[in-house]
Design brief:
Structural class: mainly alpha
Order of helices and strands: HHHHHHHHH
Radius of gyration: 19 Å
Shape: globular
Mean pLDDT: 91
Number of domains: 2
CATH architecture of the largest domain: Alpha Horseshoe
Largest sheet: none
Number of helices: 9
Number of strands: 0
CATH topology of the largest domain: Serine Threonine Protein Phosphatase 5, Tetratricopeptide repeat
Helix content: over 70%
């Protein structure tokens, strides 16, 4: 009887393990493909796939996390303000689900919250910076308190500096040290486990190169 129970337990473990491996394999390929393209249609299709993954594995926090990531990224590519905010509404919902499955926030969820806040600001910078600017900074500080070696903190700070006018303390020269800080930390990260986020390196490398050029007045 004990042998039968052990065999059943082993079979159940094997099924769960295979399901987890399938989840990670499918999620990693989808996220990597999403990050590799700048084509809006392809990103939309891959974002939809991330949504399906989150629904198929609703108890996996990473599925919801990357669905939020995809929606936030799409908002930057969309021109219609209402559609941009709609994407961010979805991103916030999915991030909440990720935190729910984790049982608490971690540095990566705070980074994602900061990205969403910055995306909200970007829809209408002149009228939203007072609200979302402080939220962006606060979320990044919470992430930094948990893990100061998270490269996405400095990448997002660099992006904020890069897109801020030079007269307000931004620009390429101001952004470069943040991109360089992120670059060093990205180099230490592994890209083998999708549940340990590593997104941002290609974009950081690209903008770091741009930041080495001169600012236009």
């Amino acid at each position: 009887m004990k042998r039968v129970i052990l065999l059943i337990a082993a079979a159940a473990f094997a099924i769960v393990h295979c399901q987890a491996q399938d989840f990670k394999t499918v999620l990693k390929k989808t996220v990597d493909d999403f990050s590799a393209t700048r084509d809006q249609q392809q990103q939309t299709e891959l974002s939809n796939k991330l949504g399906l993954i989150a629904k198929k594995w609703p108890n996996e926090w990473a599925g919801h996390y990357y669905n939020a990531y995809g929606k936030a990224q799409l908002s930057y590519m969309e021109k219609d303000e209402a559609k941009r905010d709609a994407y961010l509404d979805e991103a916030e919902t999915e991030l909440s689900e990720a935190v729910k499955e984790l049982g608490k926030d971690n540095d990566e969820t705070y980074v994602m919250a900061a990205m969403i806040a910055n995306a909200r600001l970007a829809v209408k910078p002149q009228s939203r910076w007072q609200k979302y600017g402080p939220i962006f900074k606060e979320d990044l500080e919470k992430a930094r308190a948990m893990n100061p070696d998270n490269p996405r903190i400095y990448y997002l700070e660099a992006q904020s500096k890069f897109h801020t006018p030079k007269m307000f303390g931004g620009g390429k020269k101001a952004a470069l040290p943040y991109f360089e800080k992120a670059d060093g930390l990205f180099a230490k990260q592994s890209e083998t486990d999708i549940t340990k986020p590593y997104w941002g390196k290609p974009a950081n490398t690209y903008f770091m190169g741009l930041s080495k050029g001169e600012d236009k007045e």
